[in-house]
Amino acid sequence: MPVGILRVCLVVITAIVNHPLLFPKENGTVPENTEEIIQKMKEREETLRLERLRLEQEIAEQEATQKALEEAAEVVEETKEEKVRWDMWTALSMVIFLLIEVWRQDFQEGNWQDTGGEEDDMAVLGKAFKGLAFPDKAILASFYEKRILGTTSDMARMREMVEGFADDLLEALRSVCNRDADMEVEDCMGVGSMYENWRVRKPFVCDLIVPFAPPEPYCFRSQIWCSSDSFPPDEQGYGTIKVCRADEHVTGCICDKTKLGEDMLCLLHSQANTSRPSSEMEDLLCFKNTQYLDADQVMKWFQIAVTKAWNRISHKYEFDLSFSLLDSPGALKIKFKSGKSIAFNLTPVVQYENSDVYFISHFPRSSLAAELPSSTHWFLTFAVYERRFIQLVSKTLPANACHLSCLQILSFLHGKQCSLTGPSGLTNYHLKTVMLHLLQARPGQDWAPEKLEARLQDMLKYLEKCLHEKKLYHFFIGNGKVPEELGFPIIFQRAEPLNLFRPFVLRRDIYRKTVDTFHEMLRNTSALINEYTVHVPLAHTNGIRKESL
Asked: In what residue span(s) does the Mab-21-like HhH/H2TH-like domain sit (predicted)?
């Protein structure tokens, strides 16, 4: 019974609690709040989604940046490794290059001119002679007697006449110049083929050089390419000449090299001496606004001075004097009333220190020679030493030695070939340089007159070798074997050898033309010599050949 009553009470209580009218207001707003909450939840969800996308994008960008930094670090590391390897190879290559350079210099000092006595090299290099019928001794002797000696017999009289007139002209030049302001002219000297007795081609031209010096209190101070690193490779063989006061220190004062302030004064120089007027330096034949001697200014001054000198002494002579070449300062021509003429060159030069090496204002140019770097660069000539060397060596050779005969024949053949096929890069100076090398390399007895044919072939083979290698070294520059009797300056003996054929490396067109002309000359040698040779009987020729055997 009590249990039943308890159950009824629970049912009633449950019914009352769950009745809908018990909490009318709270239960009535439930539908509206639910929709608003759902809408806010959706907006929040969208906001969270956008924030998540932004964070994902930032994370991706950071990962990409980190990856790029890692790749850059790897590239830098690889570059460092490659640089280390490259530096190692560079250092190794430099060491190898220095070893080769040292070996080359040692080889040049000991062997670079010992080529004349290497008969094996001559045989290998004489490829152009294969199949050529070279004239024998009898024909060469007849050719030399008829063509060379017959046309050069009057050279001595011509030299004497030109030297006498040049001395008179220079004496008149000194008289018309202002001794206090103009350059001082010294006595002339004969150089070149006419004074070395091997010129063969007409017209005969005497080459005279005239040293000159500045007036007091000035002097010349020169700088050559082998004494300074400021000269590039294409300016080897050149130098510059600075006009200075005799009491000026060689290195100069610091006030000449730096710009002092307006309130600073040099205690060694007064204001009047620190700067030289431009007109004063131009009167000293210097390049504009510099102290360097200008070759073009020297040319103008010398031509005007020669003209004035000739006007003073022209009444004493029965011929006319004129300049034969406008671009050469001293190319003069004597014209007689009979129509004959004599040409000679009177070229101003500057002495290098106390030697017989000279800076020459204008040098005969060839197609191979490059243009002068500027008018303040002067070419050095060793013509006086070349003449002395030939005279010195000639005293040790047999009587009537064939060294000059070989050079004369070779010069004649080359000149004739150029007249047929046009000029080439070779000059008579190149041919003389070949002879000088062989004179030093071969013993004196090899230049006996009966060995004319062999020595001429040696010169041609040596020239072929030089053309093939594009190397013909200047005889004096870099030659440590120059006889001490010449008194040749040691600075040039210690210099790097000067390759006269260096322009062939840059001018392939001229090189090809030169090689073709040389080979054509070899093929035409017999024809050119036979054209000017008296007929030699066959029996006489055979007899000479048997005797030689």
From this structure: 405-477
Run of H or E residues at 335? strand 331-336
In angstroms, rounded to a whole number, what is the distance separating the alpha carbons of residues 188 and 166? 8
Q: Where are the domains of the chain?
A: 123-248+280-534
What are the residues whose beta carbons fall under 8 Å from the beta carbon of 394, sequence distance 6 or more? 401, 403
* Torsion sign over Cα 19, 20, 23, 27: positive
- Cα-based distances in Å from 198 to 156, 345, 390, 409: 12, 17, 11, 9
Name the 3-class secondary structure at 179.
Answer: coil
Q: What confidence tens digit (pLDDT) does each residue in 284-338 have?
A: 788 888 899 999 899 889 999 999 999 999 999 999 999 887 667 789 999 999 9
Encoded tokens for 193: 């083929």
Q: Where are the alpha helices (DSSP H) in 18-29?
A: 24-28
pTM of the model: 0.71
Contacts of 124 (CB under 8 A, 6+ apart): none
With a CB cutoff of 8 Å and minimum separation 6, the contacts of 154 are: none
Q: What is the pLDDT of residue 70?
A: 82
CATH fold of the domain at 123-248+280-534: Beta Polymerase; domain 2 (3.30.460)
Show the tokens assigned to 260.
């002092």
Structure tokens at 487: 């008194």
Closest by CA position to 441, among listed 473, 410, 489, 400: 473
